[in-house]
Amino acid sequence: MLKGKELRVVKYLLGGCLTAALCAVIVTLLPSLSAGTPASRAAMVIQPDRVTRIGSDNLVDALIAQHFSQRIRRTDLKSAVLSVDFVIRHEAADIEPVYEDVLKLIRLSFKQARNVERLLIRFVDTGGDSGQRTPGSERLLLAADIRRTDSWLADDGAVAAADLLADESWTRRLRISFTAQGAERFGRSRGL
Length: 192
Hints:
It is a single chain. The chain is an alpha+beta fold and 192 residues long. The chain is built from six helices and five strands. Helices cover 36% and strands 18% of the residues. Strands 1-2-3-4-5 form a five-stranded mixed beta sheet. The chain has helices at residues 4-33, 59-64, 96-112, 156-160, 169-173, 180-185, and strands spanning 71-78, 81-87, 118-125, 139-147, 177-178. It folds into two domains: 4-40; 48-185, no CATH class. It starts with a helix and ends in a 7-residue tail after the last helix.
C-alpha cells in the first residue's frame, strides 16, 4: 500500500497528467469552436488581390483570380512587359466582356502590381466553333497597348470609372486598334 508521501506524489503526477490531457483536448477543439466565423473559412495560399509584384512564380495565380470572361491563350512577362493573348469564342459578338477583361488586366498590372511597366493585350479568334487552333485560322481582332507612364493612370478613379463603350477617348488612352475583322465583328467602323 502507498504511504502518505508516496500517495501525495502519485496524486500530483495524476493531476499533472489530467491537466496536460485536458489542455491537449482544448487545443484540438479550438478550431471547431470558431467554425462559424468568417475568419475561419479556408483561405487561398496565395492572395492574388495582394499581389505587388508579378513574376513567373505567381503570374498564373494572379491571372486566374481575375475571372476573365475570355479564355487566356498565352501570357508572357519579360523586362517589365506583360503580354496576354485571349481567345474570343467564334460566335461571340459582344464587345463589353472584352472591355471588362481589359480593365481587369489594367487594375492588376498597374494598380496592384508595381513591376509591370507595359501591358500588351491581344484578342484573337481561332476560326473554329470549338476555339481550337488550326493552321492559318487564327485572326487578330483587336489589340491594346497600355503603359505605366500614361498620365491618366495616375488618377486612381480613372480606371474605376472607365466606360469604354460610351467614352471614345479610351481608344486613344488604351491605344486600342481593331483589325478589319474585329471592326466588322464588333460593329465598329474604326476604334471604339
